[in-house]
Write a sequence for this structure.
């Protein structure tokens, strides 16, 4: 003890400024510099510079990502340059389960780490979006909606009905990422409101991207087994920046602004031959006498405004007609006939506004040998591209550590987020309200968006292009106008019926670490994630929908109490033993209340529950309670840093399962072998490691799946009305089980200029707990059962290349590639398929035994030798099975290629994100074709005549296929279905619409996801500016170019918010924004 | 070691404080869903759901008004053209009866015992009344789809029930009505005000049971006249509805839109105009100067300086709201535009029509009796006219027309089915499922001939196909049921046992 104490005695301490460089003299950023024998240390900055107070006889230990640890004597100089050897990423320290930092050498499972800088190159309001393409095995599906939610799927879909989203853990706090959207998401707890279908985003967007130091992705079950069932979908560990022992206060400030523009390839193109109407053949225009228009003597031509389609009359600019605006009192064309022609502003571009996002971030940090602190504040102002839409966020982060004694350290963190949003984007099929479904499915090109805007702002009325033909609109006068048939004026909806929501979120943790001995410590702590949210929905008097006001309150709370005993000791010189036992108590409480006006509003524009025509019904309440009690332990044995064996075991007891079956275990075993240590003389091989592991994890049941309940409805004439549940509970549910194994190989060659990591994984999820669709003649829609198993396997690979590395110029290439394979092995009761969702237009997303999860079902054609069969009338012959298999959502592979170039103080990077295969059904193309919007529904036929003409007049189309009658190529022109009024060429006879198979498209895309150009102002040019230590300027772009896609007019990545069936179905797809970002980072 | 002990002890205390004992029992009871139910409240819900299924205009549940051409569709003419899969009508109708109606009625029976009853007879009567509504529901199911799950239906332990033969189910239901009739004790009360049709009047429910039995028996009149005759006479003996005062009308509550009449919800509250009057119905009524016209429809100005009643041709894409008559009456906010319009599940006019059919076929006395048939026919039509607001004088004038009067009309038409069928067609204006079933039973009006929808894919539907959910969730049993259909094809035009 005496010897150790004297070694720690501070002599004449002084401040040394130093710099960490590599063999080529390039700065090595962010290395950790500490005094040997002491715990506290400092971090080097991006230029490798550090400052530390030491005595000259101290030894400094320099460690860091990608470098070999090095020890140097502090010495008497005040300036010190430490040269270290690069090790590529091999000795990197990886954050693993429960926040344990481990050397990559001893890691027996797949984990990929990305730095905070890697995800901060462009500005997004959801940090997850910036992870796309950067991690093998991680599939991110981003949304183009303002603040939209994202799917975060690691290694495929396992669960048929429960969440498949990865778990986020931030500084040890499980961080809720529940999708708050309602439609398409069985796990959402936001009450279904009247305008069900707003994308409320993912709760992870409350995280401050600027404050992230690193992200560690634990892909497999072995890596995440210690998190129990919550970790069964993989874990994304986020470590925020922390303060360091340093002189003075460190301040970093950054400012960013981004502006977007539409990618035109993701917006519809319209045919410009035919205008509004549903039936060109029998009544092109209403021929009516309107006394005040022409004296009531002769009939005038009125555009059939109730018809929300473009199968009306042929445009003819010499023809004067009364369009919708002739009945809008605020319009200059009021009571005037105008030429029958496409409007000047008929494209959605003319509706959308330029989206602008501004972020400001300040991080203040500091510390001493007694502790550290960090405080960060970020402000985000996000103006959406739909009129009157915005999100404002304020994020505060505080993280402190304090060394109470030499053996007791405490840490406390508190984050507060305040988010306010106005007019989030709708994504459900809501004909009356969703402007994007208007534009893609029902929009005749004679409608002028700017005229709608002008009319709304001139009068603040719902002057619509889609007047209800109840005879009243012809009598419209200022202040007294009719109502829409199906579609509100888009500006009326945006300004008169705004959705608004606000969220206040507090996450915090307190942790104490007690060093009992040099090799044994105890940690204990509490974590809390809490947020409260208010969602308000509205429809003003005068809207197409009945007027209402509705408010929903949502509170979420997850509390964890945990304690663990950790053991870490070297035995002899070759062995290291690590062991841990711990316990965790998790308590969830999610409650909601939803209240609405009843039967309409009394006064317009007054948003209160009391403003209700009828007595409001009782609010709808929910309260979800859950507790999971856990014990866990792990043991790791390493030999010579070359071979590592590890075993873990966790026992969970979850309250959502029946008492008799509520306990389950997660064992895992893993092994890791750094074989390059056996070949120290093989120069070509810089590093080689192989690993293999096996794990079993379990899962609990959704809330309240065990006991029977009833619902109390609104009394009828004072009589109580109750109904039984339609989902039969089950008191014999067993936990879900998942068995996974994984094997991987990591090798680096040629001085680590070429390297790869590859692994294969295989998992089988069985005993899935799901509400199985039963025959509804049981009286139930579903029975809660155990049944079904799903297999996931795949290959993941990451390749690193450094084609050029000189003193001034560097070029790094990182490729991530994943080839997943998913298969439904069996379902409950021997059923051949299970409908995961039935969507608009009766499209089903199903799990079908023997096929990958996510088979798309809908109507199909009949075929002879692969060619479509044509009837004698020239129409397709549809299959009698309206639920044929017509596509599958699973991709063949996906990946990303990231190139980084650096030249002196300049750096340039670009990321190409590829998603190959998988299919989607476009409701937009289906309904929009049916309504005659798209160029495919107009134009000329093989005879050079308009194909919408009667074949007797030379019109119609010859559909490609085999004639049912002759067995030869079809020669009959199809037209007769046009008598149905819609564009229905190519439909089956009498079906009224084309088979849904027609609207299955490949979901493949290749995107230039990210381009970033950064210039770091050389520190010497900042010398005049005292206190400024560095300025980085960067110009970046996001989603600049969709290099390849097959889907017309839309982005194939655009889905339906977050959830198990959010992909594979497009409805009102929002366009892709190309954003340009300018970011300034200043360090003080 | 002391510091280790202190630390461990405090950690253990902290954790022990966190755990909940018996947590699976304590935390698994949903605090915001009722753990128990009142039988009478479940009955009210079941009665409400049955009435809604019969009353609703939703084409995803009950597209019958449109198929039978009482009503017509504007713009979206799928059901007019017999495309019933587009909005999954077969699934909606099936679920509304099996899940929303029968399931709750079953639960009501199971929960009655937990409530206070003044006498055991009250409880027994309540069980029987509840059963009558179940019988009604199953009757509609079996005569809509054919074979259906019955003996294994409504079970917590059989997720994929077998289908029973349609005729067997039908006969079992008739027996079940007999049991109800025998068991109803009119000296005792029942569930009282929880019954929003008769307020628990057992006298009325007994008439209802007899009238339901008559209705069910007439379904199979052509195929099995012997049994039908027996059942008809038994029903007459029990005592049928004798006036509009007996009508089974559910009292919708306008205090809340969801408890209001679903027709009002669809055509007024929603702000949509999806439907208009059927052209065949309007022209038929115009031809006979029907006094119900002003109660059914509004006049429309067609531009030729005269206001007329006008309906649209089924399946014609040119149908647009405003160019045809509307349902009556917006101006005085009554009838179909009233949120409190009662839901009609069985009525007197219907009973008289069945009796007229029975007399015409000789199913009362054994030989056809045109005079008796005419009397029932007159009573039925008068009851309908008066039900909608007309007077007995108007009825008499109407019936005096040679084209309407039973004997002269029969002589002209040649078939009693046509005479009675057209009058039922008119009276069925707001009778949803019955309007379709009467056309299936009598073949009149013969839609395939007199008014085939423009663009229809098939002939007039004679049944519903099985819901997609049954085909996918219960494929083996559904396939077995389909195999018994003509040609083994699950078609809308397949005939059922009584057709």
């Amino acid at each position: 003890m005496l010897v150790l104490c004297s070694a720690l005695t501070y002599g004449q301490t002084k401040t040394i400024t130093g710099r960490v460089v590599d063999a080529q003299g390039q700065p090595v950023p962010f290395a950790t510099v500490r005094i040997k024998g002491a715990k506290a240390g400092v971090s080097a900055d991006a230029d490798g510079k550090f400052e530390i107070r030491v005595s000259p006889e101290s030894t400094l230990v320099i460690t860091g990502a990608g470098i070999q640890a090095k020890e140097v004597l502090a010495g008497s100089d005040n300036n010190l340059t430490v040269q270290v050897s690069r090790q590529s990423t091999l000795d990197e320290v990886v954050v693993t389960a429960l926040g344990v930092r481990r050397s990559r050498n001893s890691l027996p499972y797949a984990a990929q780490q990305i730095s905070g800088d890697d995800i901060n190159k462009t500005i997004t309001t959801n940090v997850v979006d910036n992870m796309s393409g950067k991690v093998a095995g991680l599939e991110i599906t981003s949304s183009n909606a303002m603040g939209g939610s994202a799917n975060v799927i690691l290694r495929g879909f396992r669960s048929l009905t429960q969440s498949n989203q990865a778990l986020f853990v931030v500084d040890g706090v499980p961080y809720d990422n529940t999708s708050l959207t309602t439609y398409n998401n069985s796990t959402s707890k936001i009450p279904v409101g009247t305008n069900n279908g707003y994308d409320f985003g993912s709760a992870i967007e409350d995280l401050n991207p600027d404050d992230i130091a690193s992200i560690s992705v634990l892909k497999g079950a072995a890596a995440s087994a210690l998190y129990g069932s919550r970790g069964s979908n993989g874990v994304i560990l986020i470590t925020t920046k922390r303060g360091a022992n340093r002189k003075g206060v460190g301040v970093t400030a950054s400012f960013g602004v981004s502006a977007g523009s539409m990618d035109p390839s993701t917006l519809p193109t319209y045919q410009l031959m035919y205008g509004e109407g549903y039936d060109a053949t029998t009544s092109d225009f209403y021929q009516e006498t309107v006394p005040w228009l022409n004296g009531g003597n002769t009939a005038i031509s009125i555009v059939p405004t109730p018809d929300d389609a473009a199968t009306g009359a042929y445009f003819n600019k010499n023809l004067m007609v009364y369009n919708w605006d002739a009945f809008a009192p605020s319009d200059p064309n009021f009571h005037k006939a105008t030429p029958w022609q496409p409007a000047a502003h008929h494209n959605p571009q003319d509706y959308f506004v330029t989206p602008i996002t501004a972020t400001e971030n300040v991080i203040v940090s500091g510390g001493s040998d007694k502790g550290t602190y960090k405080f960060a504040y970020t402000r985000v102002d996000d103006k959406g591209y739909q009129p009157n839409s915005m999100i404002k966020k304020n994020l505060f982060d505080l993280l402190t550590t304090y060394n109470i004694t030499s053996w007791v350290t405490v840490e406390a963190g508190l984050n507060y987020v305040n988010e306010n949003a106005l007019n989030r984007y709708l994504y459900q099929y809501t004909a009356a309200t969703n402007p994007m479904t208007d534009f893609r499915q029902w929009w005749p090109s004679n409608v002028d968006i700017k005229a709608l805007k002008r009319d709304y702002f001139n009068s603040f009325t719902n002057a619509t292009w889609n007047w209800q033909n109840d005879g009243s609109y012809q009598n419209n006068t200022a202040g007294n106008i009719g109502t829409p048939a199906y579609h509100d004026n888009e500006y009326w909806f945006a300004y008169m019926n705004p959705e608004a929501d606000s969220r206040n979120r507090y996450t915090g943790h307190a942790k104490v670490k007690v060093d009992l001995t040099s090799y044994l410590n105890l940690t204990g702590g509490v974590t809390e994630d809490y947020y409260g949210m208010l969602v308000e929905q509205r429809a003003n008097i005068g809207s197409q929908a009945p007027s209402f006001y509705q408010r929903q309150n949502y509170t979420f709370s997850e509390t964890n109490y945990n304690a663990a005993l950790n053991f870490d000791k070297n035995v002899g010189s070759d062995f290291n033993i690590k062991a841990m036992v711990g316990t965790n108590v998790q308590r969830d409480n999610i409650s909601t209340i939803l209240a609405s006006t009843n039967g309409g509003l009394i006064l317009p524009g007054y948003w209160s529950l009391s403003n209700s025509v009828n007595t409001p019904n009782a609010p709808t309440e929910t309260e979800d309670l859950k507790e999971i009690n856990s014990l866990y332990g792990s043991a790791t044995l390493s030999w010579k840093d070359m071979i590592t064996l590890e075993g873990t075991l966790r026992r969970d007891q979850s309250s959502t399962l029946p008492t008799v079956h509520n306990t389950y275990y997660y064992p895992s075993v893993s092994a890791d072998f750094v074989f390059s240590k056996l070949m120290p003389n093989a120069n070509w091989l810089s590093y080689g490691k192989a690993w293999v592991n096996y794990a079993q994890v379990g899962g609990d049941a959704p809330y309240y799946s065990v006991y029977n309940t009833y619902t109390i409805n609104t009394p009828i004439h004072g009589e109580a009305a109750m109904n039984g549940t339609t989902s039969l509970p089950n008191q014999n549910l067993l936990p879900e089980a998942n068995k996974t194994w994984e094997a991987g190989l990591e090798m680096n060659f040629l001085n680590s200029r070429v390297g790869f990591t590859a692994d294969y994984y295989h998992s089988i999820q069985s005993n899935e707990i799901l509400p199985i669709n039963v025959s509804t003649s049981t009286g139930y829609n579903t029975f809660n059962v155990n049944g079904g198993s799903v297999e996931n396997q795949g290959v993941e690979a990451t390749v690193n290349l450094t084609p050029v590395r000189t003193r001034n110029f560097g070029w790094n290439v990182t490729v991530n590639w994943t080839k997943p394979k998913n298969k439904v092995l069996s379902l409950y009761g021997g059923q051949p398929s299970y409908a995961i969702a039935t969507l608009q237009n009766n499209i089903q997303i199903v799990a079908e035994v023997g096929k990958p999860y996510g088979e798309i079902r809908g109507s199909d054609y009949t075929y002879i030798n692969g060619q479509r069969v044509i009837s004698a009338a020239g129409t397709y012959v549809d299959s009698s099975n309206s639920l044929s298999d017509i596509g599958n959502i699973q991709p063949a592979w996906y990946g990303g290629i990231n190139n980084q170039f650096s030249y002196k103080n300049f750096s340039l990077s670009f990321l190409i994100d590829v998603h190959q295969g998988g299919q989607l059904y476009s409701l937009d193309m289906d309904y929009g074709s049916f309504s005659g919007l798209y160029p495919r529904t107009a134009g000329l036929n093989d005879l050079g005549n308009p194909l919408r003409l009667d074949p007797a007049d030379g019109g119609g189309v010859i559909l490609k296929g085999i004639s049912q009658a002759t067995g030869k190529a079809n020669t009959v022109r199809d037209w007769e279905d046009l008598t149905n009024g819609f564009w229905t060429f190519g439909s089956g006879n009498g079906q009224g619409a084309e088979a849904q198979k027609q609207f299955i498209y490949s979901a493949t895309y290749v995107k230039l996801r990210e381009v970033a150009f950064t210039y770091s102002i050389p520190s010497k040019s900042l010398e005049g500016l005292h206190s400024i230590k560095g300025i980085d300027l960067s110009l970046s772009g996001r989603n600049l170019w969709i290099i390849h896609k097959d889907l017309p007019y839309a982005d194939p990545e655009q889905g339906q918010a977050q959830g198990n069936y959010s992909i594979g179905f497009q409805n009102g797809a929002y366009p892709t924004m190309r954003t340009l970002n300018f970011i300034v980072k200043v360090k003080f | 070691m002391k510091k280790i002990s202190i630390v461990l002890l405090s950690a253990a205390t902290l954790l022990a404080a966190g755990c909940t004992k018996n947590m699976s029992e304590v935390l698994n009871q949903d605090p915001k869903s009722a753990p128990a139910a009142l039988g009478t409240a479940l009955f009210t819900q079941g009665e409400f759901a049955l009435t809604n299924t019969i009353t609703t205009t939703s084409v995803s549940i009950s597209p019958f008004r449109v198929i039978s051409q009482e009503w017509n569709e504007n713009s979206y003419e799928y059901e007019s053209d017999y495309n019933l899969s587009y909005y999954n009508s077969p699934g909606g109708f099936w679920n509304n009866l099996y899940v929303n109606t029968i399931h709750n009625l079953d639960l009501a029976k199971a929960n009655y015992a937990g409530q206070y009853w003044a006498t055991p007879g009250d409880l027994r009567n309540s069980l029987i009344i509840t059963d009558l509504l179940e019988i009604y529901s199953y009757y509609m199911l079996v005569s809509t789809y054919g074979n259906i799950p019955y003996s294994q239906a409504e079970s917590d332990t059989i997720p994929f029930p077998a289908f029973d033969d349609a005729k067997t189910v039908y006969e079992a239901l008739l027996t079940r009505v007999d049991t109800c009739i025998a068991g109803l004790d009119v000296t005792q009360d029942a569930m009282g005000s929880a019954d929003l049709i008769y307020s628990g009047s057992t006298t009325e429910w007994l008439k209802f049971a007899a009238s339901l039995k008559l209705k069910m028996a007439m379904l199979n009149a052509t195929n099995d006249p012997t049994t039908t005759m027996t059942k008809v006479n038994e029903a007459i003996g029990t005592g049928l509805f004798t006036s509009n005062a007996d009508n089974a009308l559910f009292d919708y509550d306008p205090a809340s839109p969801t408890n209001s009449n679903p027709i009002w919800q669809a055509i007024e509250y929603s702000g949509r105009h999806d439907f208009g009057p059927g052209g065949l119905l309007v022209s038929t009524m115009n031809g006979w100067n029907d006094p119900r016209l002003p109660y059914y429809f509004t006049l429309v100005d067609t531009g030729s300086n005269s206001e007329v009643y006008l309906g649209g041709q089924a399946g014609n894409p040119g149908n647009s709201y405003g160019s045809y008559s509307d349902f009556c009456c917006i101006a005085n906010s009554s009838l179909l535009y009233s949120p409190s319009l009662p839901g009609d599940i069985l009525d007197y006019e219907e009973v008289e029509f069945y009796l007229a059919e029975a007399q015409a076929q000789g199913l009362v006395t054994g030989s056809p009796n045109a005079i008796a048939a005419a009397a029932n026919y007159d009573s039925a039509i008068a009851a309908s006219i008066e039900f909608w607001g007309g007077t007995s004088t108007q009825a008499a004038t109407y019936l005096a027309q040679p084209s309407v009067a039973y004997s002269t009309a029969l002589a002209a038409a040649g078939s009693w089915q046509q005479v009675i069928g057209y009058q039922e067609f008119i009276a069925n204006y707001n009778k949803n499922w019955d309007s379709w079933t009467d056309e299936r039973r009598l073949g009149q009006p013969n839609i395939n001939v007199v008014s085939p929808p423009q663009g229809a894919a098939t002939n007039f539907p004679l049944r519903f196909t099985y819901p997609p959910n049954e085909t996918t969730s219960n494929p083996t049993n559904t396939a077995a049921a389909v195999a018994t259909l003509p040609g083994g094809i699950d078609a809308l035009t397949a005939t059922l046992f009584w057709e």
